Amino acid sequence: MNTPKIVLLPGDGIGPEIVAAARRVLDAVGEFEYEEHPIGGASIDAHNAALTDEVLAACKAADAVLLGAVGGPKWDTTDPNAPRPEQGLLGLRKGLGLYANLRPVRPSPALLDASPLRRDRIEGTDLLVVRELTGGIYFGDKTRTDDSASDLCVYTTEEVERIARVAFEAAQRRRRKVTSVDKANVLETSRFWRETVERVAADYPDVELDHMLVDNAAMQLVANPTRFDVIVTENMFGDILSDEAAMLTGSLGMLPSASLGGDGPGLFEPVHGSAPDIAGRGIANPLATFLSVAMLLRDGLGLGDEAASVERAVDAALDSGLRTADLGAPEGEAATTERMTEAVLGALD
Known about the structure:
- The chain is an alpha/beta fold and 349 residues long.
- Helix content is 40%, strand content 17%.
- It has a 10-stranded mixed β-sheet, with helices on both faces. A two-stranded antiparallel ribbon has the order 6-7.
- Helix 1 links the parallel strand 1 and strand 2.
- Helix 1 runs parallel beside helix 12 and helix 10 runs antiparallel to helix 11.
- The radius of gyration is 20 Å and the shape is globular.
């Protein structure tokens, strides 16, 4: 069997720190071949482009891609012609045909009291957000004049059908319930989305489907998160709701994600941003990246046992009482990136 090839894209801010830690975890559970390349702001500095053709080609040739984070104030601009770090991520998703973003949300038992919500409100939460990645307002035609601007939101039947099938198939492996989130009382694209999801649902009679308006979904995520199993929604709504759902776990630093498509490699990344304010200080929480590594192993390389080993090690590190600053550790007692990494490595089966 060929050694799996993983492309590492550290990116910006804390990205290099957490990806370096993740590589140590990967090395502890298997043998892999690595290539490392710049993306985002680091690529803009080196090549004046957030994603080069060479890096995209390397990713296409890999078995899986692990990304740290992109962005930072250094590259903030309102100039529509200037490159932006986020273009690297969007270009990577488009270039690899990654149309489905999966974000599991399951608070660790050790962190139930770290959430801003009461323990009894979030205990038992186990949901999966399935976000459509390559359509909608983020990729629609854009216009700009001196006194107006527009962003076009477009979805096709194929785009909605394929993301709906990802959601229904995920639900069949879980608790067999899909909640489709839209704004069908206002938006024509949402009415189209709802009708298309209904047609797909007919092929999955063993899965319950309900529909929810996005504003109500935002409220229910904090009022009654245990009601959800699989949430499927369009690009912008999924971007917002998945970040909101992250706080059920106590911190954005705990949420992993996978972006999947057809036959090519998947992209795996923590949901949190580049956190430039703490970059280089050695205090970033690496756990979301480790959990993204677990998704890479399971969903990208088919290594389920190794993935479960990483997840158990993360739980064990938290059960030991270790907390990074973002998880509410008292001042002066917060675990560093290195200390948390050593704890996870020590707990690996």
